[in-house]
């Protein structure tokens, strides 16, 4: 291992384990619950608008989604939704919070290769208790030196993490499925990013373009490609 320490940050949801598929399955059931009132497109559009309006108060995660779903249901039914239907929405939220943690293909093997040679961090946003639960149940916790569960992932957040953990931006690589949250802010600070797309992207996380960052941005098809990408990255920056 060289004297220069390279640090690799990992997003959690849809990078280490499946998450958006759980939300999509609940969306299907939510649409069905409101089908006699509105079409699916209206339900989706109203739910998303409600989530965005409440984001500052509720933050990311299942609890905020559930509260916004109840508010959306009341709005779209003009208050006609029954207590039993609200109970069903609450139960959907509980099911999401209790859902088993399912790792993405190749994650465990990739971390096993990288952990001995590099300092690894988890940097994820969402509900504190839920993210802690998922990391604990994932069996991956011992691979990471530090865990950061944050309310937002922007330049200010990453800069604060760099200061707290003594990380030089040029020695940092962030791995994640979201260009908006995992890649763009890190590139702006002078770090590097490895984008591993997930097959579903939440509308709020979509961006059209990635800033030019020659030698600092990598597009991967699978997390299994990461060790070779890290080897090339450390050779170039070392």
Chart the SSEs and their pairings.
Elements: E1 7-10, H1 20-33, H2 40-58, H3 62-76, H4 83-97, H5 107-114, E2 119-125, H6 128-138, E3 146-150, H7 155-165, E4 172-176, H8 179-188, E5 192-195, E6 217-219, H9 226-237
Parallel strand pairs: 1-2, 1-4, 2-3, 4-5, 5-6
Structural account:
The protein is α/β, with parallel strands linked by helices. The protein folds into two domains: about 5-15 and about 100-235, HAD superfamily/HAD-like (Rossmann fold), CATH 3.40.50; about 20-95, Orthogonal Bundle (DNA polymerase, domain 1), CATH 1.10.150. It is about 50% helix and about 10% strand. It contains nine helices and six strands. It has a six-stranded parallel beta sheet with strand order 3-2-1-4-5-6, with helices on both faces. Strand 4 (about 170-175), helix 8 and strand 5 (about 190-195) form a beta-alpha-beta unit. The mean pLDDT is about 95. Keywords: Hydrolase. InterPro entries: HAD-like_sf (IPR036412), HAD_sf (IPR023214), PGP-like_dom2 (IPR023198), S-2-haloacid_dehalogenase (IPR051540). This is Haloacid dehalogenase.
